[in-house]
Amino acid sequence: MKMSFRWYGDNDPVTLEYISQIPGMRSVVSAVYSVPPGEVWPEEAINDIKTKCEAHGLVFDIVESVPVHEDIKLGKPTRDKLIDVYCENIRRLGKAGIKVICYNFMPVFDWLRSDLSYKNEDGSTSLVYRDATVLSLDPRKGDLSLPGWDSSYTKEGLDALLNEYKDVDEEKLWENMKYFLEKIIPVCEECDVKMAIHPDDPPWGIFGLPRVITNEENLDRFLKLVDSPYNGLTLCTGSLGVNPDNDTAAMIRKYGKMGRIHFVHARNIKHVGERDFNETAHKTECGSLDMYDIVKAMHEVGFEGYLRPDHGRMIWGEEGRPGYGLYDRALGAVYLNGLWEAIDRAEKLRS
Ligand code: DNO
Fold this sequence. Notes:
By secondary structure, the protein is α/β, with parallel strands linked by helices.
C-alpha cells in the first residue's frame, strides 16, 4: 500500500511542505489544473509538479484526474481527435513516471453535495447530501454551486450541454465508454500506466443524466468492457458506500483479488436517511462504514496500489477548499496507516 495525499498545485493552501510533515506520507496525487479538458498537458508543467514534490521527499506518480471531454462521453464525431489528445497525455505522463491515472465518466457533473459546510455538533463542518434538496435545484437556473464540477460553463453552455445528453441513456453511455477504453487501454499497456475509474458520486442518476459506475453488477460489466489489468478501478468507499447495498469491503476483496484496484479513496460517511448522508471523520465509529474491515480487506488481497484519505471535515478553524483541508485528512492518513500497521503486525506474528 502506498499512502498518498491530494494536492491542488501552487494555489493550494495545503502546501507540499505540510503534506511532507504527515507521518508515513509517500505520494502526491495531483494534476495539471490549468489546462482545460481536451487539451494536451505541457511536459514542463508535468515535470514541474514532479520536481516540486521531489524537493519535499515526495513522489508524484499518480494523477487525479485527466478529465474526459464531454464530447467523448456524448459520443460526438469530434471524439476521435479528443481521444488522441487523451492518449498523448497518457504517453507524456508515463514518460514522467506516472503509474496510475484516476478519472471519471460522469456526464456534466462530478461529485455533488447539497451543503458544503454543514455544522456538526462539535463545531466542525462537513459536506452533506440531501436528495430532496438536490432534486429541488435547477442546474439550468444557475442554482448550483458545487465543488466538483467545471464552473466555467455559462448558463447557455450548460443548457446546451444538458440538451445534448437527452439522447444519451445508460446504454449509450456504456457504448461510449467502451469505445473510449478500447482506444486508450492499448496505449496504457504500452506506457505501463494504469487507468482507475472513479465511481459516480453519489452512485445514482441525477437531473436525468445517466450514471453507471454505481454498484457491483456495473463494476463487473465495466471491467469486462476491456478485460485488461490496465483497465481498473479507484475504489472510493465514500462514493459507493452511500448506497447501503454496496458492501465496499467485499468489493475490495473481490476486485482486489482480481488485481483490478489501483487506487483506494478511503473515507467514512453516515447514512442519515434514504439517499441522505453526512461525511464524517474517518474513524469507524464516526460513520456507517467499517473502516477496519476496509483496510483489512486491502491487506488481505496484498494491495500494492495507492491509498489516500479522502474528504475531511473542516476542524480547528481551518478554512479552505471544501473537503480538502489539511487537518482532518492528515488525521485520516495517520489513522489509516495505524490500522494498516496493526493488521500487518498481527498477520506477521500469526505466520
Ligand atoms: C472528489 C473526487 C472526485 C474525483 C473525480 C475523478 O473529491 O474524488 O472529484 O477526483 O471524480 O475524476
